[in-house]
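Bench log, entry 3. Co-assembly request; chain sequences pasted below exactly as received.
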Amino acid sequence: MSISALLTQYGDRYLQALFATWRLTAFSFFGAVVIGIVITVLRVCPISPLRVFGNFYVQVFRNIPGAALLILLVYALPYLNIVFPYEICVLIATVLIPSAFCSEHLMSGMNTIHPGQIEAARALGMTFFQIIRRIVIPQALRSSVLPMTNLMVATMLTTSLGSQVPLRPQELTGIVSYINTRSAGGVTAFAISAALYCLTALFIGALGGWIDRKVRILR
Amino acid sequence: MKKILSVIAALALLLFSISALAEAPAATAIDKAAFDALIASGPVAEDETVAASTWASAVREAGILRVGGTRTSFLFSQLDETDNGIRGFDAGLYELLTRYILGDETKYELTQVNSSTRESVLTSGQVDAVFATYSITPSRQEVISFAGPYYTSQQAILVKAGNQEITGVDSLADKIVATQAGSTGPSILAEFAPDAIAQEFEDDLQARTAVEQGRADAYVTDYTLILNSIVKNPGAYAVAGDVFGPLDPYGIGLPKDSDGVAFVNAFLNRLIEDGTWAKLWKISLGERTGIETVPQAPTVGE
Amino acid sequence: MNRPEIQDVLYEAPGPKTRRRIRLFTILALLLLAGLLAAIVRQFAVTGQFQPKYWFFFARLTTWRFLGEGLVTTLGAALVGSALAFGMGFLLMRGKIRGNPVLRWLCTALIEFTRGVPTLLFIYFFFLIVPGTGWKLSAFWKITLPCAISACGVVAEALRSGVNAVPKGQREAALSLGYRETKLFYRIIFPQAIRFVIPSLIAELVIVLKDTTFASIVSCADLMQNAKVLISNYDALLSIYLVVAVIYILINYMLNRLSDRVARLLKGGGSAERRAA
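Structure output for the full assembly:
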């Protein structure tokens, strides 16, 4: 099938799929960063059960394969009388997994902060949460822009999990399998999706590089 | 590392203690002894019969029958991990065919296929034959050839027990209906219930789980599969209305224009004549779905 | 690294008042977590998921042997896939660093391509397109190859950063001793570079291992696929997938631990110069 024939027949679907991938990526990334920050705070807080919980959370979601997590969410949870729509299941999976990696990036970002700063903040009488909010998190975020950029690309790649359940509209991976089981889309159908993924990744990378140059802390 | 190992040990202990409480439940398991005995008593082809077919000669030459099939079709081809036997109606037929050509029913090699890969394993020469609840359709016949049919099925509607709304194929409009991707289900649904909202699933378990969990209102598939689901999970499902749609003949997929078609058809006719087909039907399907009467075998070669 | 870890300086040794508060919050947190756990257990109980019919087969040796066979396939695919990814990544890295402008551009494009496209898309390619080309591949290769392709770009970049981390002076010193480029690379640069990147290569193994969980798409009998056979036999979806997920998590966790340990070992054992780098 030629590229123009494919686009005439499935152009709309591709556009919808691209937006679906973007939407999933954006929501998941946002959710992952928020949860990642919360988990990171738990991991450094003085209350040991919460530290243990935070570390446990990170180990579980860092190490579980996306396919296994999605299957548990979609097919196993309903046996516990917990039924989420497919979109939500995918979203949960694509939030939980990147959030663990986000927390790992933040932890190493935090370690670039000089302890002297914390000591200074304490000397000024700041509480733990003030230190976290005003000193640690902003710097950890600023010095982890590049890992975060990679995390966003990784999140985009993770959203391809959406092809494993009946999503409506489909995302960029699901649409390729959809087209190829109906008409012989062949290599072209793949090339279009691959190109759209790559362009998105390049765009995220460029954006991340630009932000990094703006906010990087020179030490 | 020690900590991890102790966690594993604790988990294992927990599992074992829960597990030890129970024995295997009386499921709708296949009668293994009867099945194995039936296969072991299957016919073996005369040398000249094999020699007359290039397809069968090639298999005998190789010393192994390469089969495309599944391991997770509970009624037709299910792997039992406790003894590594694959049993079911399809499995019985390819094991009998293996015995017929090679004199030893264990000399087959199973390549797993699913609804979307059945043609490609044949066209690329990865397998000699495909046994996988494989409906004979004109579009498939363009790329491969079929022997058989050896079984005829029809579609039916599975719903959650207690569902009063769906009473048959006419009441499927605007309902979410699950089907198996790559099977004949989606196209039959589109023809007989065009207003239903179709949802495709990878396999039978996922599709009927969707019905059980309320994600889909109904599941349209092969009647035998539905019967089996009902027997396996008493009280969970019901059949809505009658069987419908065209008669769905199952065939054995063979390479396009292979002379294996005539050979396998002769083999099927022999099984039907000597009663093996009926016995296999009874062991694999009848006894496990509660159907008493063995149906008339389809006319092979039509 | 004599600097204390950040978590250790966030708060000073607590006084008696703070200690009481911490103790209070610790108890509250414990109660909260216990409540969470209890809720999960209760949900299992009320939905009947503790019923022996969902668990009895885990007491059978055959069940574990069967899962073990799947695990061997999974690990095999992950190891072979990683080895292939390493080979391809190495070539891409060499091409990007050394080759002529065309080759360099091509390698950069390939690296960006494999890093920007999800593994699943590669798997679907091998599942839907490759059989039509007449290229006969067993199910094992249909999962291993796409996983390797998807990982090779990341490996190439990891190797490149390792090569870049080798101090420039070494290269200059070797050149002044009359080393040729090839010998210089294989004898001086690469052995050091590989030491920097071993941890990230092990981490890559984890990623490949996770990607192989899609093997059931191409009908390869990996751990996940064998789990499906068990589920079909026993109609026990939740318990089996749960156990399989725990197996995956434990294996990946141990691999990550190994990677951390190797990283620490290499850091500690390096020369002063390497540490400065």
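The interface with chain A takes residues 116, 181-182, 199-201, 206, 209, 212-215 of chain B (CB under 8 Å). The longest strand of chain B covers residues 237-255.
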